[in-house]
Amino acid sequence: MYSKELKIKNSTGLHARPATQLVHMAERYHSKLTIIKEETGENVVGDIKSIFSILSMGLMKGSMILIQGEGDDEKDAVDSICDFINSLEE
Amino acid sequence: MNYYIEHRTEQLLNTLLGKNSFVTISEIASQLGQTKRAVQYDLQKLNSILENFDLPLVISRKHKGIYILPENREKLKTFLKNENKGINFIFSPDERTAIIICENILSEHVKTVDEISRKLSISYNTCLHDIRSIKNKLSPYEITLKTNSGKYKFYGDGIRMRSILMYYISYLYPIIETGKLPYLKNRQTQQNLKRLHLIESEIHVVYRLGTLNKIAIFLMLCKMPLKEEVSFFEGSRSGENILALVSKYFSNYSENDRRYITVQLMGGRIKSRQFGDVTNEESHYYQTCAEHLIKSFENMIGINIENREMLVYNIAKHLSRSIYRYRYGLVDTCELDDKIRNDSKYLFKFVKAASNCLSKELNCPINDSEISLLTAYFGAHLRKNNLSIRKVHVLLAVDEINLESQILEKKISDAFPMFSLKSITISQIVNYSKPYAFLISIRLLKYEGLYVYISRQFTDNDHKHIFDTYLKYRELKSLDIPEDLFDHIKRYIPHENYSAVRKELLQYFNVGSRSNLFQLISKNNVQILSQPCGWRDALKKACFPMVQNGWINKEYIDNIIMNIELYGCYTYFENDIYLAHAQSRNNVYRSGVAVSLIPDGIIFPGNKRVRLLVVIASTDQYEHFDVLKEAVHICNDTKRIDQIMECKNVNELLLVLKKIAQTKY
């Protein structure tokens, strides 16, 4: 298990276009990949390999999220996903 | 003699040549993204062509599938290579109209009917028919097709004509890639492509596969200078930069055209103003568009979307970033295109039909890649809102709530999406007061009621098996009791309270959550229509038993007819089935399904032949969505549908339907 915490910085958040890119990227890895967001005391968990799951989390600018990987390529996967989210501009 | 092989048939042969063992029809169907029915149809066609050429056939074996013997492969490969010797490729009507539009909409040499029909090897009359259907297809976008001394010419807004050209290039692109349409080999396309790649490397960007190819083909086909101004990237540095490069490499194009190419190359990097920053008027506009889209979707599916404002907000936001893409016909695709289209076929179909209405309002086409993104919003929203209401509330008892228990919870809810799980510790069970359907525990409990015991050592499959067995057991216990009871007591209940009482009963017996309307089918609701009639009359006849039983009133039939007139036959399945339904507006008193078999078939709008008419009515919109999904599954099941179509009388039909009802989906 490997995880990293980060904050969504781009102004439009993780909407459909970047989310599809993210899912596409996650599909290349074997590991089970999840996003965890804390929302009023309760954890919302999303599967990074499912577009419906990611989009329904409503990840906006400023959301603190935890990216978690579980599997043989977990470190690679989590790192590149964090890099991707950090690199979003718009 | 000439034989014609369609793109799809050839694709099937090619796929089969790549397989080293038997494959089932459904495997092929899912690989090619087609229905099983279509694959079976193509297989028949393929074999008859091979027979005519005295070539070895594709063999099929029961329970194994289809296969080309290794010793025959070489022969068939040579056959495919010699495509020009006596075998030609033909296009489907939709492909043909797309080709005619692409080659003529912005061409300076407009063609006569004779020239078009010769080029596509179709008859003069077929060509006229195609031209008529093109006129219909383009009229919502205010593009007209007029003849001038025998030659056809397109008139309309230049930017809109370009976005239509782009739309149809994307539509034809899978065929273009196979080389059957020679657009990519074209010398001019190749030159354009070279220049576009130079620009690509100068701005240090890597475009997605196919994007530049499509733009290069567009430039080859687009011969008319753009009159309208393009002013989309004022003040953007990267825009000015690309424009300078485009001007350098495409100096023979007009200023407006160069700007148009620049917009294409900028793609997603055009900074539209953020939703929060747009003027009130603009944000109101996007909200209205989103409202329209959602309203059409609701009418079609027949449900009200829960937490609607949230979806309106999200889609309005998405549209504020996307409408310029529709307007300019941007072709860069989204990465999950095919995945969304295949994984959520039915949802995509409905969103596509709803987007059609939006596209007419916006006056520009919306391509499938953009529709998959809209589908993603609908899917995410339904997953979070509407569907959770239909979920079975399940308690998961664990020793301690920690990361490990969360992973277990996640595992179970992944395998069983209809469970709404809540973890509690074993000691909390006694005091838990909220309603739940059943309890799962990872320990043996001292507990009075029923619970499901699972072990950490079990695999996901074991869990699946256990829950399946348990759910079946629960269902057997409660099946049909409330419905039978309702039938007995309904004469004592005022008509207007029917649905409330029934709902109460279902809830009491706890079956509401897994209802299967096909289980409720009775002989009264099944008929065979052998008298020829129009589609409206056929619908009325199909609904008649339900009206007679007092399940629906006539208004519901009018709603169904209106839906077809407004949105077309969006729940038509390629195997001649039409799923008729509408949103209940207090005109459904009891949920039910009526099935009519029409042996000779009836033509519905859009030249669609219907042989099986399934009418769905439900009082509860959540149930409606479930039944619709279930019906879509059944309609896609070729084997069962074939059985239905072969029925000769009502008794046989009822028997087959009952059998289907027993199967779990």
Radius of gyration of chain A over alpha carbons? 12 Å
Percentage of residues in helical conformation of chain B: 40-55%
Shape of chain A: globular
Class computed from helices, strands and strand pairing of chain B: alpha/beta
Mean pLDDT of chain A: 88
Largest sheet of chain B: 5 strands, mixed
Principal-axes geometry of chain B comes out as globular
Helix/strand order of chain A: EHEEHEH
| Helix coverage percent of chain A | 25-40%
Q: Can you tell me the number of structural domains of chain A?
A: 1
Structural class by secondary-structure content of chain A: alpha+beta
- The top level CATH class name of chain A: Alpha Beta
Number of helices of chain A: 3
Global Rg of chain B: 29 Å
- CATH topology group of chain A: Histidine-containing Protein, Chain: A
What is the tally of beta strands of chain B?
A: 15
In whole angstroms, the N-to-C terminal distance of chain A is 31 Å
For this structure, the quaternary state is heterodimer
Strand arrangement in the largest pleated sheet of chain A: 1-4-2-3
Give a topology summary.
The complex is a heterodimer of chains A (90) and B (665).
Chain A: E1 2-7, H1 16-26, E2 32-39, E3 42-47, H2 51-55, E4 64-70, H3 74-87
Antiparallel strand pairs in A: 1-4, 2-3, 2-4
Chain B: E1 3-6, H1 7-17, H2 25-32, H3 36-52, E2 59-61, E3 65-67, H4 73-81, E4 87-90, H5 93-104, H6 113-119, H7 124-138, E5 144-148, E6 151-155, H8 158-178, H9 187-202, H10 211-221, H11 237-249, H12 255-266, H13 280-301, H14 308-328, H15 337-343, H16 345-362, H17 368-384, H18 386-389, E7 392-398, H19 403-415, E8 419-425, E9 438-441, E10 452-453, H20 460-478, H21 481-489, H22 498-508, E11 526-528, H23 535-548, H24 554-567, E12 572-573, E13 577-580, E14 592-604, E15 608-617, H25 621-635, H26 638-645, H27 650-662
Parallel strand pairs in B: 1-4, 7-8, 7-9, 9-10, 11-14, 13-15
Antiparallel strand pairs in B: 2-3, 5-6, 12-13, 14-15
Helix pairs in contact in B: 1-3, 2-3, 5-7, 5-8, 6-7, 8-10, 9-10, 9-11, 11-12, 13-14, 13-16, 14-17, 15-16, 15-17, 16-17, 21-22, 23-24
